[in-house]
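Batch 3, record 17
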Amino acid sequence: MLLENKVVIVTGGSRGIGRAIALASAREGADVAINYWRDNDQSYGKASAVESIVGEIEALGRRAIAVEGNVAERETGIELVRRTVEAFGRVDVLSSNAGICPFHAFLDMPLSVYETTVAVNLNGAFYVTQAAANQMKTQGTGGAIVATSSISALVGGGMQTHYTPTKAGVHSLMQSCAIALGAYGIRCNSVMPGTIATDLNADDLSDAGKRAYMEKRIPLGRLGAPDDVAQCVVFLASDRARYVTGASLLVDGGLFVNLQ
Ligand code: RM4
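Prediction for the assembled complex:
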């Protein structure tokens, strides 16, 4: 068990990649605090998305709590850590995963679309990382922070001029936090997912031509699944990565390197 008796916080943990990270962490022995926001997704049967993931974790014999809050607000990270410590006594791992990507053209992008994307993806990552790192420092036993950056930290997207800078920022945040927090034994790394089939891009990939184009560009021949990313997050969070900090791991099926 790679995360035996660890306490893991996952932001944006009710759906998509975050849900997979929460479940994979529980499967590896962790108790999990799941942050979510406006969970109105009824695609998990009668239960809401967050109710169903809590149930799946408890069915594994691990504990889980759900804490609603918009990570774009600084208080959310502070309250999320407080509720986690209240429930489980500590924080060992933070998966700073919450993010949005409302695809939109650049020239007529509404200010609200830009500002909300920056607030959630970058400001949110900063706030929750700061809150978790302060708790880990207080605990005095180190910790691991894994941020969900993106292949989009390294390459652009014509409909993602608001989004790609935030993912580059998350990547850089982890590099600087690795330096700032190394003295406390807190490791900071990022994963860089490629095109992973989730509700984040369901609309974008509902275009059969776009989906076929992306699949053709990926050397492994398929879009990623959320658990493909979750397994890499578990590795970076675990003691197997004990000497890894300030690093980033592409999880993209070879998409980034595929020019021709
Ligand atoms: C990723 C990458 C994918 C896109 C998602 C939303 O960074 O750009 O292609 O589907 O974002």
